[in-house]
User: What shape does this take?
Amino acid sequence: MRVLIVIVVLVLILSLIGWVQLSSPDGDPTIRVDSEKVKRDASEVVKKSKEAIDRAAEKVDASIDRESLETSSE
Assistant: This one.
């Protein structure tokens, strides 16, 4: 029963963000996955993740540089 609830919730979330479209033309239920939107969104997530990782790496490098300057001046 939990699996069914998880699947329903997942399909609803995917529908809300536009990745999955549910329709019933001519009485036949249809599920359509917008693969182009999925690809665009996934590439945007990858791009933003890389930018966030780069910013974090710069902050770590700056922190290490500050610590090494503080220890060398003591």
Summary: The mean pLDDT is 88. The beta strands are 20-23, 30-33.
